[in-house]
């Protein structure tokens, strides 16, 4: 990493390293390092609790998140805890190849292979194998995928699971199979497509591809998850239009459409995504569902929204690059816990119940976590609607939030056939070039070119226009300038085409900042939102528990720091 003065603005690899503190801190060292699932930060003192998601789901998400965060940051924090998570994860498999929930002395849980858990399990095994190439991980993943195929109910053109939990020996109800009483298809089949497809890409596993193919057909042709106009089916049997599972399914379908070259499937996804965006705020708050949980935003849903938007943008719907950057800069960044002085904590363990609850040093342990259920203007959701106050943190959102940081980081600079595209105007280092982002303080980015590039393009925000965009290029003491209103300057709607670039060149791009106010609606609630470029710098009414968007400071000139950005020679592609 080259040390120099860089803008002290949003740097996703730094956020990933902070997230690792919470990922490690959630481990219950008094209970075989099983991570706690949820936190109530509004109680006095705050507490962490276990839940029935502790096993395949939580371990899978934590292993995946640590792999991605280490790749981004290079940090070695908590490697011994990570080994515990990995060992536990493998121990949950039974001979049938599925991952099973375990007994807990404080609860009446029945061991079963929950099919929401299985998605997190294959996700983590895929990331783990991608990072290490460990043959024992591939062996476990191959056996797991074979089991997912074996237990699926297979009809002429679709496959599905007839219940949410599988038990050793078979499905709980043969009648459910006869009557086709499949549980919500998006939750139990649709979301599985994403990690299965990646595992197929990595290894060529044919079972994984078949599962993707028949699950995709289930969702599009038979399920009724998405209405004809693209909206979410809000019937009770479809989890009231649960946003996390619907958006996660759209993410999966978009990836499968892109992989198979299925333009119709991409169009199908875009129709639903365009509708979903209208139900969210422009800064990234999403409903929980369309009914009882409507007021409860999950970071999980936001990350699905980010991932789907990226795939659509790469598939030609380039307007979504700007949409996704607003989500990353705002609700993803705001949803991460950085300041902990408002959390009431203690080091007293006298009230702790092993395997159930702890009150020990909750603020310290959870710094870097992401909101479990948040309001548009507050980390803690305590509205007079829906279910009122529930969990402030959930470990699924910690895993998803870290993955969201990775998606933004990995897609900021992309390469295809030697051509380089800068898609997000965020700080980022790479082997090709570094991006210094002065936003939101100044409408300026500086590119430091490391290698000769045959073609370079940079996305400019739609609010910047083109007439006043300026760029300066410096190389070997020579300077040239250009303008955004010159011929043959723009491609793909929003990308400034710079042509070839040379190693050692510095390119500075400047444009006017947009200052505007919008009214954002979240399930009937209106919020006056003040923007500076793509960043929300104020919101009214303000939150009351741990307010969002009230502590952001902007200056005429961006603050600087001594440092640099990580460059990875061989990057993961997820």
Q: What strand order characterises the main sheet? A: 12-13-16-20-19
Fraction in helix: 25-40%
Radius of gyration: 23 Å
SS summary, helix count: 15
Mean pLDDT over all positions: 96
Principal-axis shape: globular
Report the major sheet: 5 strands, mixed
What class would the helix/strand composition place it in? Answer: alpha+beta
Contiguous uncertain segments of 5+ residues: none
Secondary structure: number of strands: 25
Q: Tell me the strand percentage band.
A: 15-25%
Q: Terminal Cα separation, in Å?
A: 24 Å
Question: What are its keywords?
Answer:
574 residues; alpha+beta; five-stranded antiparallel beta sheet; globular; 6-hairpin_glycosidase_sf
Structure description:
- The protein has a five-stranded mixed β-sheet. Strands 14-15-21-17-18 form a five-stranded antiparallel β-sheet, with no helix packed on it. The chain has a four-stranded antiparallel β-sheet with strand order 10-5-4-11.
- Strand 12 and strand 13 form a beta hairpin.
- It is 36% helix and 18% strand.
- The chain is an alpha+beta fold and 574 residues long.
- The protein has a domain of 132 residues.
- The radius of gyration is 23 Å and the shape is globular.
- InterPro entries: 6-hairpin_glycosidase_sf.
- This is Glycosyl hydrolase.
């Amino acid at each position: 990493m080259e040390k120099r003065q860089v803008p002290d603005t949003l740097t996703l690899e730094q956020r990933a390293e902070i997230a690792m503190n919470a990922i490690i801190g959630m481990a219950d060292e008094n209970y075989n390092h099983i991570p706690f699932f949820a936190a109530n930060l509004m109680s006095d003192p705050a507490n962490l609790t276990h839940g029935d998601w502790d096993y395949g789901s939580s371990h899978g998400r934590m292993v995946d998140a640590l792999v991605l965060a280490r790749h981004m940051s290079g940090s070695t924090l908590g490697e011994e805890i990570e080994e515990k998570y990995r060992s536990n994860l493998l121990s949950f498999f039974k001979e049938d190849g599925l991952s099973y929930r375990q007994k807990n002395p404080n609860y009446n849980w029945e061991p079963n292979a929950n099919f929401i858990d299985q998605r997190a399990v294959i996700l983590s095994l895929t990331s783990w194998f991608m990072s290490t190439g460990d043959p024992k991980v591939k062996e476990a993943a191959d056996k797991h995928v074979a089991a997912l195929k074996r237990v699926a109910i297979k009809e002429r053109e679709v496959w599905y699971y007839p219940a949410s939990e599988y038990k050793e020996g078979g499905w709980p109800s043969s009648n459910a199979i006869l009557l086709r009483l499949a549980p919500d298809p998006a939750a139990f089949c649709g979301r599985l497509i994403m990690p299965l497809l990646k595992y197929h890409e990595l290894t060529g596993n044919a079972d994984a591809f078949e599962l993707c193919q028949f699950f995709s057909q289930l969702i599009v042709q038979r399920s009724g998850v998405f209405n004809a106009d693209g909206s979410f089916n809000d019937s009770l049997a479809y989890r009231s239009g649960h946003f996390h599972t619907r958006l996660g399914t759209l993410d999966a379908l978009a990836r499968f459409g892109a992989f198979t070259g299925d333009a119709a499937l991409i169009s199908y996804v875009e129709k639903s995504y365009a509708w979903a965006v209208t139900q969210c705020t422009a800064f990234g708050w999403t409903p929980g569902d369309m009914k009882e949980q409507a007021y409860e935003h999950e970071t999980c849903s936001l990350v699905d929204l980010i991932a789907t938007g990226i795939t659509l943008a790469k598939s030609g719907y380039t307007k979504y690059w700007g949409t996704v950057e607003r989500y990353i800069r705002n609700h993803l960044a705001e949803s991460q816990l950085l300041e902990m002085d408002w959390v009431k904590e203690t080091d007293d363990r006298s009230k702790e119940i092993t395997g159930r609850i702890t009150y020990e040093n909750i603020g310290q342990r959870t710094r870097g976590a992401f909101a479990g259920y948040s309001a548009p203007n507050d980390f803690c959701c305590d509205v007079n609607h829906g279910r009122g106050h529930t969990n402030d943190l959930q470990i699924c959102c910690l895993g998803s939030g870290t993955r969201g940081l990775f998606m933004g980081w990995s897609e900021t600079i992309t390469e295809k056939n030697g051509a380089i595209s800068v898609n997000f105007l965020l700080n980022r280092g790479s082997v090709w070039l570094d991006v210094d982002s002065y936003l939101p303080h100044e409408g300026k980015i500086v590119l430091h070119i490391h290698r000769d590039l045959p073609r370079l393009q940079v996305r400019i925000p739609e609010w910047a226009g083109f007439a006043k965009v300026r760029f300066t290029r410096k190389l070997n003491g020579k300077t040239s300038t250009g303008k955004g209103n010159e011929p043959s300057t723009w491609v793909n709607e929003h990308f400034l085409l710079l042509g070839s670039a040379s190693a050692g060149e510095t390119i500075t791009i400047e444009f006017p900042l947009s200052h505007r106010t919008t009214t954002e609606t979240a399930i009937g609630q209106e919020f006056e939102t003040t923007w500076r470029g793509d960043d929300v710098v104020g919101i009214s009414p303000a939150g009351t528990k741990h307010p969002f968007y009230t502590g952001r400071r902007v200056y005429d000139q961006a603050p600087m720091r001594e440092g640099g950005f990580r460059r990875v020679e061989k990057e993961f592609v997820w």
